[in-house]
Amino acid sequence: MSDRLVNALFPILVVDDEPEILKSVARDLRRHAQVETCADPEEAWKMFQDKEYSAIVSDLRMPQISGLELLARCAALKPDVPRILLTAFADLASLEDSINRAQINLLLTKPWEATDLQKAVEGAQRRFELLKENAELRRLALTDALTGVSNHRYFWERAEAELSRAQRYGRPLSLIFCDIDDFKKFNTEKGHQVGDEVLRKVAQTLDRARRSMDTVARYGGEEFAVILPECTRPAAAEIATRFIDTVKSLHGIGLSAGVASYPDDAKTSTELVHQADVALLQAKATGKGKALTIVEALRKGGA
User: Fold this and answer.
1) Could you state, in order of their start, the residue ranges of all structural domains in the chain?
2) 123 or 56, greater pLDDT
């Protein structure tokens, strides 16, 4: 058995209402992993919600809630954390539906072999670590390295997904395109390091000011896009104006913005981007430092 998991980033949570069983499981695992124990399943559920674990091992029969109920809750909240069930009952045919609901990764019967338990937990931790690594790689692939907000690729992924949802449920969807006014002067007059810092400040301010359901992305260069689900054109225009005012007041940096919405202004994500971009270009052409909807832009001659 490898000792490489002793220093694993996240511990294992072991749950059993019988103190001797709890000690025995912990003893078998502690040479190979960090272990936290709990004799109360309700308390274990609170622990699982508040902390990261690389696996949870639970007994079946416990007071208050069963091990299956506990693991079902865990599966719903954090499906990537492997779940191992310990039980003294060899015939679990009658519990098949409950086991499926809890999405048990492995079932071990009492009395268990220490090596079987160790191998089961080691395999569960490896699976968890791999999922975490893959999730981190995906996050890095979809994040703009300079500003820390979503990148162009993730913007299109979210735009397609949110438009599909808006179409399915008949809900509005808006898009704001923001561009930093006179950005070239930061690079040419003060240097690219200052320009990079300006981009970071704007990105972080937009990200802090957005609603929880919104997505801020660096679309390219000094241009940012904000996807706003469940948001009409007038509401989006107010949000865009607030973005502009906030960035100006905090950093003295000017922004212009264009706003377009589904279904009023566009039927596809490509059309939505085009219309928001047209509105943005007209906002910059007519004085900068303001937000225009596509309707206002076309009225001003931005077609």
Assistant:
1) 4-139, 152-299
2) 56
Q: What is the CATH number of domain 152-299?
A: 3.30.70.270
Of 113-117, 148-152, 296-300, which one has max mean pLDDT? 148-152
Q: Which residue, among 116, 133, 128, has the nearest Cα to 74 in the 3D structure?
A: 128
The residues that are catalytic are 222
Across 270-274, average pLDDT? 96
CA–CA gap between residue 26 and residue 140 (Å, rounded): 36
Task: Read off the pLDDT of each residue in 58-68 and give the average, rounded to a whole number.
Answer: 87
Q: What is the CA radius of gyration of the chain?
A: 26
Q: What sign for the dihedral angle of Cα 184, 190, 192, 195?
A: negative
61 contacts 67 by C-beta, under 8 angstroms: yes
Strand order in the sheet with 215-220: 215-220, 223-229, 173-180, 255-262, 291-293
Q: Which residue has the tokens 């997505």?
A: 215
Helices (H), 94-216: 96-102, 114-141, 152-169, 183-190, 192-209
Q: Judge whether 57 and 11 are in contact, CB under 8 Å.
A: no
How many C-beta neighbours within 10 Å does residue 151 have? 20
Give CA–CA dist 177/200, Å, rounded: 17
In CATH, what is the architecture of 4-139? 3-Layer(aba) Sandwich (3.40)
Q: DSSP letter for 150, please.
A: B
CATH topology agreement for domains 4-139 and 152-299: no
